[in-house]
Specification:
The chain is an alpha/beta fold and 377 residues long. It has 8 helices and 28 strands.
């Protein structure tokens, strides 16, 4: 029996582990937190598990279900284990599943002091879960799905959202979600928070148009960045914009025996899509273990602006646009059109998916990958 080590015990890593065990492979999952389950463990709202577990549940229940299934399947689940380099691991295959996080204030080059009261959505949800009511007024930076989830969390915590800011000229979520959660909240478009005022506590923010908004809390939302330190240290080629390791459609990286899955390779999809990644990677891992099968090169999907990046997920290809764009998204393989969307408006920060079964390829197209995604206007 072969050994596979999976780094990261979130939805992607646990799903891969369960699927590999089902195929008789010995699997160890190394998770740095004291409990496995990844980010969903800390998100008490419903909205998890539709595509992979076929029922909607809360984050903690979804995470606990995956952990239970992994334990029942016989996965060697080791928590409190932080991996700092993959070179020290003795395994026949390694699966990186370290996830992605919202870019914190420190990485966003916002001027000002470092007062208390500055969060990402994830940190806010953890804080509210622990402390309950927080009160006060908040500014939410970003206007994508997760930003409106932050507005909802703030409301439950008795905190009034006084402004939402976005660098684009509209929000990037479903109109119904924006209406239901924030119809009375002013949306500042084409604006960014450039300064936070306040020594010990947040007192106000200054926007790029010079206006000042009094508040007690600032929540930086979205703007995902993969947890890619291990991949970088392993010298894996990266997608420049997504800052994610380049993978094949079977999640193979440039280094034979090393796979990468989950939000590490597509920042960020929902947890169930990461779960599907985990299932999709298992047969490829088995092929490597039993046949030594690996692509000669792993070529990134080429993109042309305004497409920002494209990568693979458990459903097919997932991509993002860098700006609001009108037109048809097109996938070509060595110059031949494989898929083209209807005419539409495409928004940044929104997942755009090209499903495997919708592409024209009749056989595996990816061994001599020459894929290009662009927009036909
Ligand atoms: C605020 C917020 C709201 C969200 N709402 C939803 C929702 O409603 N529905 C939904 O489906 N999804 C939601 N998501 C997204 C969901 O959480 C992610 O899609 C999912 O967690 C990604 O799974 P993953 O396995 O790729 O990564 P993660 O869940 O991030 O798991 C990665 C794991 O790897 C571990 N790790 C990282 N580095 C190392 C290392 N060096 N050594 C050992 N372990 C390591 C981490 O501790 C972590 O446990 C939300 C996310 C946020 C932040």
């Amino acid at each position: 029996m072969s050994d596979v080590t999976i780094i990261g015990g979130g939805p992607a890593g646990l799903s891969a582990a369960i699927e590999l065990r089902r195929r008789g492979v010995r699997v160890t999952v190394l998770e740095r937190e004291l409990q496995a389950g990844g980010i969903p463990r800390q998100l008490p709202h419903p909205g998890f598990g539709m595509r992979d577990r076929h029922r909607l549940t809360t984050g903690p229940r979804y995470a606990a279900g995956l952990v239970r299934a992994a334990e029942r399947a016989g996965v060697d689940l080791r928590t409190g284990e932080t991996v700092t380099s993959i070179d020290a691991l003795h395994a026949d295959a390694i699966v990186l599943a370290t996830g992605a996080r919202e870019r914190p204030r420190s990485a966003r080059l916002v001027a000002g002091d470092r007062p208390a009261g500055v969060f990402t959505t994830g940190a806010l949800q953890r804080f509210v879960a622990q402390h309950g009511r927080i009160g006060g007024r908040a500014v939410v930076v970003g206007a994508e799905h997760v930003s409106y989830s932050a507005v909802l969390t703030l409301r439950h915590a008795g905190c009034h959202t006084v402004a939402i800011t976005t660098t684009f000229d509209r929000h990037q979520t479903y109109p119904a979600l924006a209406w239901a959660t924030a119809r009375r909240v002013p949306l500042h478009t084409n604006a960014n928070v450039v300064e936070i005022i306040g020594r010990t506590r947040v007192e106000a923010v200054v926007l790029s148009d010079g206006s000042r908004i009094e508040c007690d809390l600032v929540v930086f939302t979205g703007d995902w960045v993969p947890d890619h330190e291990l991949a970088r240290r392993a010298d894996l080629p990266m997608l420049a914009v997504a800052k994610a390791p380049v993978v094949s459609d079977d999640f193979q990286t440039e280094r034979p025996g090393v796979f990468a899955i989950g939000n590490l390779v597509h920042p960020a999809e929902t947890a169930d899509v990461c779960g599907l990644d985990g299932r999709h990677v298992a047969p490829a891992v088995l092929d490597w273990l039993t046949l030594g099968r690996w692509p000669i090169t792993v070529t990134p999907i080429e993109v042309r602006a305004p497409v920002a990046w494209a990568s693979y997920d458990g459903r097919g290809i997932t991509l993002r646009v860098a700006d609001i764009v009108h037109g048809r998204i097109r996938l070509t393989h060595s110059g031949e059109v494989q898929w083209i969307s209807d005419q539409g408006t495409w928004l940044p920060n929104r997942s755009i998916t090209i499903r495997r079964d919708a592409m024209k390829f009749t056989s595996r197209p990816f061994d001599d990958q020459r894929l290009l995604v662009d927009v036909l206007r």
